[in-house]
Amino acid sequence: MRLSRAFLPTLKETPAEAQIASHRLMLRAGMVRQTSAGIYAWLPLGWRVLQKVEQIVREEQDAAGAQEILMPTIQTADLWRQSGRYDAYGPEMLRLKDRHEREMLFGPTNEEMVTDLFKGYAKSYRDLPRNLYHIQWKFRDEVRPRFGVMRGREFLMKDAYSFDLDCTGAQKSYRQMFVAYLRTFARMGLKAIPMQADTGPIGGNLSHEFIILAETGESQVYLHKDLLEFDVLSRPVDYDGDLSPIVDFWTSRYAATDEKHDEAAWAQVPGESQVSARGIEVGHIFYFGTKYSAAMGLSVNGPEGKPVVPEMGSYGIGVSRLVGAIIEANHDEAGIRWPDAVAPFKVAVLNLKKGDSATDALSERLYAAFAPDAIYDDREDRAGVKFADADLMGYPWQVVIGPRGAAAGKVELKRRATGEREELSVEDAITRIKGA
Amino acid sequence: MRLSRAFLPTLKETPAEAQIASHRLMLRAGMVRQTSAGIYAWLPLGWRVLQKVEQIVREEQDAAGAQEILMPTIQTADLWRQSGRYDAYGPEMLRLKDRHEREMLFGPTNEEMVTDLFKGYAKSYRDLPRNLYHIQWKFRDEVRPRFGVMRGREFLMKDAYSFDLDCTGAQKSYRQMFVAYLRTFARMGLKAIPMQADTGPIGGNLSHEFIILAETGESQVYLHKDLLEFDVLSRPVDYDGDLSPIVDFWTSRYAATDEKHDEAAWAQVPGESQVSARGIEVGHIFYFGTKYSAAMGLSVNGPEGKPVVPEMGSYGIGVSRLVGAIIEANHDEAGIRWPDAVAPFKVAVLNLKKGDSATDALSERLYAAFAPDAIYDDREDRAGVKFADADLMGYPWQVVIGPRGAAAGKVELKRRATGEREELSVEDAITRIKGA
Q1: A405 lies in the same domain as A282
Q2: CB contact under 8 A, A141 and B99
Q3: Residues with Cβ < 8 Å from B186, sequence gap 6 or more?
Q4: Could you report the predicted ipTM of this complex, rounded to two decimals?
């Protein structure tokens, strides 16, 4: 993308309403703009990141055997009356009436709808297990939306729902999502730690939150250092195999949020292994048995010919929230430092002297070499502005082309994460970035 | 995807409420399920098609220089009061109030919001031209939703909005979208004909509908045969160049819907070139000048230092509607006949004797060769059921593996579009399909 033609509006001033780093940086870098309280439009830079995050989530759900569907945003109140949650949900549910005065709502989650959908087709134990997920916009009418996309009202969530014949099967599904979540966050360059959680209004008896560590995190967490050092992506996962060893590794070490913190258990962790840090919740998984299947009348013919009520779980990832959380974990004074896998563009080509035929030609050549995962700063602007914008927008690599370098066939390469700069031949710069 | 584990629920009976072919076939093939009147959940098979259609739309918008953003579904009533459309829109607009009693609505379209968004950033004529698009769910509260996804209430639309300095620029943007639309529909295997249209409630003075031809189409259309014979994809397009010759070709031949049909002009078309057919609207483009920019207070500093109110156009494609329209144009008694580019899977591997070690091994080998764009019918079911389901779901290629063929290293290949069948060696079958 050429910056001279792009819709990438940066802000010089920090908007007063933005209290946290990700909110400030997303506004300043022109990633999003608020259109109503807690409701955001995603501009091209932000939209690219959101799509990359979404795609990683999708690939890991697919790899774990979940199947993608798409449920609508608008649901009938009747569905929620069946589960008893219509009255229980409170003012966070956005309720509305259609032109025929039928009571509807903008879905805050989909347990009821997916159970009803599944009920329409599952007749036999042979139709189990299944895990269905979708990535769809939800609405929760927070009384005081804040922190930008971290706590918006309209937000993008991946929610998966598993259906199993029995508790053993449901626990296997739970472990599959547990492991898929570890991989999902690791691929985004995040350290995400599963921590035992209360099940809250969803109900059930087994639940983990996935918390990423960031200095600016919303809550205090306590964990064993082993968990930080484990390399999640170092070995392939067989989702049909026994995942207990992986889950056991994570659940046998101490990890707790403030709410669940247990001083006595914490004291058992050797001092040099105790890590206390700030954390941000980015995912939450639940096993809740037959709570919804029983309420909604879902049952299948079991292997012995008797009806069986499937055991269910649900598994959420805050996709739009993750964009903010990644920034909270990856920024400095100058701006965002995107992990490579979720950067809006991998490379920024900075032409320091637009209009000079040698720098123009070399810049075009480099831009072409990295396209389409590159942005070309071809604006007629000062070098300082270009450096500042590239740092703010946080592209992992910057290739800087000035007239002196262009004459000598050299460019400067900057790695945003470390700040390292190096002068290289054009060929070496291309090789270095493409190989990274 | 293995059918034995997939969530691909077919129906044996045709649902009584489905009046048109695409609606019947989408329900029978398990592509969608209605969750409320005119509101659908997309099941895995339908969701794959929707994603492929969406991706083609996206690629052609990007190629034409439009930039993708994502605006939210929920908008404030205030925005629509500025343009005067809040009261004008009528009961098709889904209106609601949030917990603070603020008037909101589920967006049926986005002229107001995008103009307000653009106003926040565009200061100078150098910030023009820009074309911003998004692919987002919309809601129009139809009084009698019907025809499945062809006329649903919650539907996926691609809407683009162009901003130009003057009328000449706006016409250039209009032509870019005109050509991008021709290519978009052609890539989906559709014959789409632009026809002059009324501008309706959007306003403005130039507008074309894009109509695809299908025997089961909703309206009568009249056109010159040249338009059907033109091969849109045969040459590359330079969107920065002059697109007038392409647009002139299409607009100088007769093409009209029933409403605009002009018997006198039609009589000028030589009889052998007259084609009258049934059509379905799948896209609509508008040039409406300063209608929204003036109403919403958008202006930029012009080249001479005076304020200029940008000229705008908007450009819509019914993405979810297209899935139905493609089926209307591509089906027979047995089911859907997907064009290759939008098929949910390119190949179906039919194992006629599950449990036989030779057919199982050969089926697995073929499935692996075509994955991930293949579905494997590994169910323990009769051959007749497998043939019928594959025809119904409409995969472009079927590879049939029976025990006799497996012993001889042969498979049967069926091309869904033509019904042609051929016995081939395994290697030839793989080569044939991969090369297609």
Answers
A1: no
A2: yes
A3: B192, B232, B233
A4: 0.96
